[in-house]
């Protein structure tokens, strides 16, 4: 079913240079999907592309299963690096930035149903609250995950959590000592509350991922993996000294063919 519709979409896209079908197929690596909000964008949202509809998300999970991918978490990846067990043949890392309540309401049950897992990057001070860093003029305030939801998801084994700082600040635009505090404080508080090591960190706005001193601070804080928003698929084994882990931005207006190109070429469209 999915294969058929891909062929049709592929034929249509072949006529257009807008898509990256002509790129060489990337094999191996750790394709890392980057989602934000799952569900329908509220009226007034100017960030509609960061909303992926539930049906699209389900179809994307079906694609992954049909193409033999196994979802892993950053801890699985760390364990494999430590030699505690191999990664699956075709791993995929499904990540969600910010920690919206719709991740619990919509993404979590779909992941569980599909037998897959993912990683949500939390902004510590927004737990039980709303996305206060957004200007409500461009994006209505949304409910963020509650502590009870976070615990339930962690206990299920479906979702692992990482840090996305204390307050979602732009780490390339604040003094380094404040960056260090954002990194260390969020790690410590999340670890205290969740009783697990925070191995993964995602840069708010992707900012700082290519500033050597910010990246060094992330490693000094003790995170094992840092995730940027640079498009692409990082190779395995990942070499931390090279660059932060690349991700594939999944947009609300992506077709399944875009998704296929992301997974196989590391890029869908221009
Ligand atoms: Zn963010």
What oligomeric state do these chains adopt?
Answer: single chain
Considering the protein shown, what is the CATH homologous superfamily? Glycoside hydrolase/deacetylase
Label the structural class. alpha/beta
Total number of domains:
1
End-to-end separation: 27 Å
Q: Would you state the CATH class? A: Alpha Beta
Task: Walk me through the topology.
Elements (H helix, E strand, L loop, with lengths): L1 H13 L17 E4 L1 E2 L12 E2 L1 H13 L3 E3 L1 H8 L9 E8 L2 H14 L3 E5 L24 H10 L2 E5 L12 H19 L5 E3 L9 H9 L4 E7 L13 E5 L6 H10 L5
Parallel strand pairs: 1-5, 1-10, 2-3, 4-5, 5-6, 6-7, 8-9, 9-10
Helix pairs in contact: 2-4, 6-7
The structure holds zinc ion (ZN).
Question: Summarize this, please?
Answer:
The chain has eight helices and ten strands. The protein is of the alpha/beta class.
Question: What does the model show?
Answer:
With 270 residues, this protein is an alpha/beta fold. The chain has a single domain (2-265), classed as Alpha-Beta Barrel (TIM Barrel). The protein is 36% helix and 16% strand. The protein has 8 helices and 10 strands. The chain has helices spanning 2-14, 54-66, 74-81, 101-114, 147-156, 176-194, 212-220, 256-265; strands spanning 32-35, 37-38, 51-52, 70-72, 91-98, 118-122, 159-163, 200-202, 225-231, 245-249. The strands form 2 sheets. Strands 1, 4, 5, 6, 7, 8, 9 and 10 form an 8-stranded parallel β-sheet that branches. Helix 4 (101-114) links the parallel strand 5 (91-98) and strand 6. It is globular, with a radius of gyration of 18 Å. 42% of the residues are buried. The structure holds zinc ion (ZN).
């Amino acid at each position: 079913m999915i294969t058929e519709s891909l062929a049709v979409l592929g034929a249509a896209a072949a006529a257009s240079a807008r898509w990256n079908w002509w790129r060489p197929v990337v094999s191996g690596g750790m394709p890392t999907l980057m989602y934000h909000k799952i569900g329908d964008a509220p009226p007034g949202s100017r960030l509609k592309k960061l909303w992926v509809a539930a049906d699209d998300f389900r179809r994307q999970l079906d694609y992954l299963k049909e193409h033999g991918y196994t979802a892993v978490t950053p801890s699985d990846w760390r364990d494999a690096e430590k030699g505690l067990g191999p990664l699956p043949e075709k791993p995929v890392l499904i990540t969600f930035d910010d920690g919206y309540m719709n991740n619990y309401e919509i993404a979590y049950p779909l992941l569980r149903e599909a037998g897959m897992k993912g990683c949500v990057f939390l902004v510590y001070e927004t737990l039980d609250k709303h996305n206060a860093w957004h200007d409500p003029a461009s994006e209505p305030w949304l409910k963020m995950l509650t502590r009870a939801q976070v615990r339930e998801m962690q206990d299920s084994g479906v979702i692992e959590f990482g840090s996305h700082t204390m307050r979602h600040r732009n780490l390339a635009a604040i003094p380094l000592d404040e960056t260090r505090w954002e990194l260390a404080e969020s790690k410590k508080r999340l670890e205290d509350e969740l009783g697990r090591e925070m191995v993964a960190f995602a840069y708010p706005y992707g900012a700082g991922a290519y500033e050597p001193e910010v990246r060094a601070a992330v490693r000094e804080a003790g995170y094992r993996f840092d995730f940027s928003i640079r498009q692409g698929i990082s190779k395995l084994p990942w070499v931390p000294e090279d660059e932060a882990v690349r991700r594939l931005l999944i947009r609300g207006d992506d077709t399944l063919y875009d998704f296929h190109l992301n997974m196989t070429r590391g890029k869908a469209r221009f």
